[in-house]
Amino acid sequence: MGATWIVLWTIIATTSAMWRPDPTRHANDQHLEWSMLAPGTAVDTVTPEGLPGQKTFVLGTDRFGRDYLSRVVAGSGLSLAVGLVAVLLSLLIGIPLGALAGYLGGRFDAAVSWLLQVVWSIPTLLLVLALTLAFGKGFEQVFLAIGLSMWVEVARVVRGQVIALRHVEWVEAGRVLGLSTPRIVFLHILPNLTGPIAVIASANFAAAILIEAGLSFMGVGAQIPMPSWGNLIRDHYGAILTGHAHLALVPGACIVSLVLAFNALSNAFARHTAQR
To answer: 39: closest CA among 266, 258, 250?
Structure first.
């Protein structure tokens, strides 16, 4: 179920520009005369050919008269993109460092372990905020900041798994045969770690979505007019006590459901790895 929900949102995010009611970039077509319409409201419009028509707002509109369904759907692309880039960046940094530290040991392992402890001691959100403020606001900076904050968990997991495998018989046989260290580590040891890596990658994907939403809520993530589930909640959280509570609850529900889906997928990978 978790994987199905993730695939569904991936399809929505990648194809939404072709079918959402507001096809403009960032779904930012504003009509102030349609401000704060209730869900399901239909208004009379004129087609591009000059003929009378009607437009229905499934989730209503925001205070600028923008179609809210289009805004929510457009925001899904940013959340999934941030998660994907952050996970890939964390894997590219964490896997080589953790694998080499676990296999080589000695001073290199001590240096990497010290770096891991230093970065691990800094709260993730505080580290991401510092990196975001250093590189500037914007979603490109969010990609980099979240990815650089997540490689530590990957490196710790990979290092521990490699330490457990570096003295097994087939690794010793590779050393006796004169195989190079990169070949032993990356072609023979790492393929046996796909299960733990899949578990940590799924969990990091969920964490990246939450962090991006938090940063956008605080105003240091996606910038106006780019929609993000985080800044949609920020713009409308005051409406929760009014008749327009859906403006904050819908993107919040999207975040919760997608994070739960990735956590369910991570748990499934963990159970499969344990059974192996």
So the answer is: 250
